[in-house]
Amino acid sequence: MSDITTIEALRGLYGAPGERSIKKEMRQLDTHAKAFLEKSPFVVIGSSAPGRLPDVSPKGDRPGFTLVLDDRTIAIPDRPGNKRLDTFENVIENPMVGLLFLIPGMDETLRINGSARISTDAVLLERLAVGGKAPVAALVVTTKEVYLHCAKAFMRSELWNPDRHIDRRTMPTLGQMLKDQIGFSDDAVETQRAMEERYLKTMF
Q1: What HEC string does 3-70 produce?
Q2: CA–CA gap between residue 90 and residue 45 (Å, rounded)
Q3: Closest-CA residue to 40 (of 73, 66, 79)
Q4: pLDDT in tens, 29-70
Q5: Region of residue 117 (left: phi > 0; alpha: psi -120 to 50; beta: else)
Q6: Where are the domains of the chain?
Q7: Any idea which fold 16-157 has?
Q8: Pick from 115, 90, 108: nearest CA to 32
Q9: Taking the mean position of all CA atoms in its chain, how far away is CA 169?
């Protein structure tokens, strides 16, 4: 076994981070971070709680769906979903979260780490409404670390390169995969068309 089990051993293998990697970390949102949020339609939220497995959940919406409340606070609407509530349940026990914001076509990302709470404030939820439909709740995050992340992962993966995108037909539909995983009979599986229709009706 060649596992790394101490921070000293880890640093001995990788060395110290560069000065710029440390200095770029901010406590609050600056002009560039706010502009990034205004254009971002997608965020991945990492959370954890004692006795539970860590969770990473995607949230997607219209560009700028994350509301900047002030230089240290943002609000993310919780649109209709599967009601697992993995992130929310974790936040109740451990408010620390990590956020990774993406903009399609841009290789750099915005990382925000901080403390979260779940809000049902009617005034806030109305500000997050789409087409007159307000979210049930919002994740309000107080920033503790804010920084832009370099482009290497996206450059290596060529994530935004359309020539690298797969033909969706080379993978089964979600309905078929769930049938295989759960073992439901054909009459108990929601068809792909029905699933897509439900998505449209419950998007907001």
Answers
A1: CCCCHHHHHHHHCCCCHHHHHCCECCCCHHHHHHHHHCCEEEEEECCCCCCCEEEEEECCCCCCEEEE
A2: 11
A3: 66
A4: 999 999 999 999 999 999 999 999 999 999 999 999 999 999
A5: beta
A6: 16-157, 166-201
A7: Pnp Oxidase; Chain A (2.30.110)
A8: 108
A9: 26
**Residues 44, 71: Cα–Cα separation, whole Å:** 21
- Residue whose token pair is 């349940």: 89
**Alpha helices for 54-121 (secondary structure H):** 86-93
pTM score: 0.92
Higher pLDDT, 184 or 92: 92
Residues 6 or more apart from 93 whose CB is under 8 A from it?
A: 49, 50, 52
CA distance 143 to 185: 47
